[in-house]
Design brief:
Layout: E1 5-10, H1 17-26, E2 32-38, H2 49-59, E3 66-71, H3 75-82, E4 86-91, H4 94-110, E5 115-120, H5 130-138
Parallel strand pairs: 1-2, 1-4, 2-3, 4-5
The structure holds adenosine-5'-diphosphate.
Length: about 160
């Protein structure tokens, strides 16, 4: 049997407990999950790419079937290169749905065999968004409760 490999693509700026929940629940469906931090070289991130990759790798240290990569390309092209026939995404609300609907059509246009699998967010994590966390962090608010790692204790950001 072919391994079921899923790519979980996102900006992850930062990676949150909502994202962690999607990955861990995805393990019930997939043999292997690759967290793909997509970045556009023209767009500046708030949390540096390498720092976030490191924090995500630490988060899933105990899971050999979860790995983390960074990429600057079309998500569907990367999935094809990785032999990942599935894209994993989370859905919080109808706004997510509208966006996800079109992006999944585009991904299939680029890579016909790829299927996007959506997991509905766990209700207690639904209000968490990377945008809000960035805003809180920018003005000095501790955001650790929203993250699967302790940003405040992380020395690599210093
Ligand atoms: P993108 O910039 O590609 O939307 P994000 O990093 O914002 O990337 O999100 C990656 C994926 O995780 C998306 O499918 C998004 O809907 C989902 N997601 C974001 N926040 C949550 C959450 N709190 N619970 C579940 N899924 C989430």
């Amino acid at each position: 049997m072919n391994k079921r490999i899923a790519l979980f693509p996102g900006s992850f700026d930062p990676f949150t407990k909502g994202h962690e929940d999607i990955v861990l629940r995805g393990l019930h469906i997939f043999d292997e999950i690759i967290v793909g931090i997509g970045h556009n070289s023209n767009k500046k991130r708030y949390f540096p790419l390498e720092v976030m990759q490191h924090l995500i790798e630490n988060t899933f240290e105990a899971y050999p079937q979860i790995s983390t990569i960074t990429y600057d390309d079309l998500t569907a092209n990367i999935a094809r290169q990785l032999g990942a026939r599935f894209l994993l995404r989370g859905l919080r609300n109808t706004t997510d749905f509208e966006y996800e609907n079109s992006i999944s059509q585009v991904n299939r246009h680029v890579y016909e065999e790829v299927e996007t699998v959506f997991l509905i967010t766990s209700p207690h994590l639904a209000p968490i968004s990377s945008t809000i966390i960035r805003e809180l962090h920018k003005y000095g608010h501790n955001v650790d409760e929203f993250l699967p790692y302790k940003l405040s204790e992380s020395t690599i950001l210093a």
